[in-house]
Amino acid sequence: MLSKLSSVLKNSFDKIAGAVFLDKRTIESVVKDLQRALIQADVNVHLVKKLGDRIKEQAQDEKIKGIERKEHLTKILHDEILNLLGKEKKEIDIMKGKQTKIMLIGLYGAGKTTTTAKLASYYAKRGFKVAMLGLDVHRPAASDQLEQLGKKIKIQTFTNKNEKSALKIYEQYKEKLKDFDLIIIDTAGRHDLDKDLTKEIKSLTKEIEPNHKLLIIQADIGQAAKQQASEFQKAASINGVIITRMDSTAKAGGALTACNETNAPVYFIGTGEKMSDFETFNPKSFISRMLGLGDLEGLLEKVESAVDEKSQKKLKQKLEQGSFSLRDLQEQLKSMKNMGSLSKIAEMIPGLGKAKIPENLLGAQEGKIKKWQHAIDSMTEEEINNPEIIEKQTSRLNRIAKGSGTTTTDIRQLLKQYKLLKEMATGTGDLSNIDPSQGLNQKQMMKLAKKFGKKMRM
Predict the structure, then answer these.
(1) Who contacts 358 (Cβ-Cβ below 8 Å, separation ≥6)?
(2) Across all residues in the chain, what is the average pLDDT?
(3) Angle of helix 195-208 versus helix 224-236 axis, rounded to 10
(4) Is this model's pTM higher than 0.85 or not?
(5) Is 61 part of a structural domain of the chain?
(6) Looking at the structure, do residues 52 and 199 belong to the same domain, yes or no?
(7) Mean of the pLDDT values across residues 336-347?
(8) I need a labelling partner for 346 at 20 to 30 A (CA). Which of 65, 71, 247, 302 fits?
(9) What does the pLDDT read at residue 27?
């Protein structure tokens, strides 16, 4: 996301830190680089000019006491970018035991249906009883798409392909929906905010009485997000925004800053096609990640999104009983996959964001995880529950390797990692035996989480 702006920000901070004298020329150079990168990210030119003027004015203030000018300028840069994006992280007010309805609105192609599923999955992983309601009666494939996504993420979905009235569909399921904590509602779009769309949103709002109306905007519209957010605020009284396609455009800066200008808080951002490519928008964490300083809060959030509460409790019980099997390891590998690519995870770990980790190394690790999953699929239930028998019989090793398209070396590495993971998880192992090239195991992840005052399960 915003790789060019990220690179310029890092270089600017390095330039300030490495300057012998923080003179006017250095400040001008830093500001020019930053302004150029912001404009390339499609941030409004007038906003960029004002930002540059403020930085230069504050940077030349000689009255700052108890702080070096370098530190002062670094803080100014950070705070000004933060002002552009919005200072505070905004959260939707949702409580378990009290039903909440979230209605998603927007134009064609913004990604409402996919976002409906991503939002539903996000809250289901956090213990909410969630349902999705499809009220898009204008796009023929909308109901099918929502149903397919519902099956994929195992969330109850209510649609009616034959009904052409959104209000009648809501009335049809009104009683059944009372059983859920959270209702995520997908609505129809249009090519623009015309009278028909405005009328439909108002009639649905009056009947459904949603607690929140969120506008879905794709990042690639850039500064046009300002006009769209303003129009929807006036016509439909939106509470906030979710921005999609953050990973595929250089205009994301324009969309983020435009929403902040209109006081339409950005609650979530979509960063890819997978259900896990979805996260809360925290301006401070966003800037931290762009600077290569990591984002632990975001990383922990991804862990929560990858594994639901039931799976976490089940795993905890197995670990306490010492009955952790290769099948359980496979589930954890799937959870890792749900968190996204290793490169995305690396960006969120403090220290690794700035480290120049070869892309081929991360790719090799992801390839290794895939091989392990295929290997487990090629095993018998006896081998999965008692993996010790595999090492004792070469014929088993050869059969599994041949059946999964792997090598016997791959299988031995899998068994080694499994044994270490089981030992660490049950408290019988020694951390000094861990091979760093095999990645972090359960115990290490728990230690890392504990260090930062958080509780994390993998």
Answers:
(1) none
(2) 81
(3) 50
(4) no
(5) yes
(6) no
(7) 60
(8) 71
(9) 87
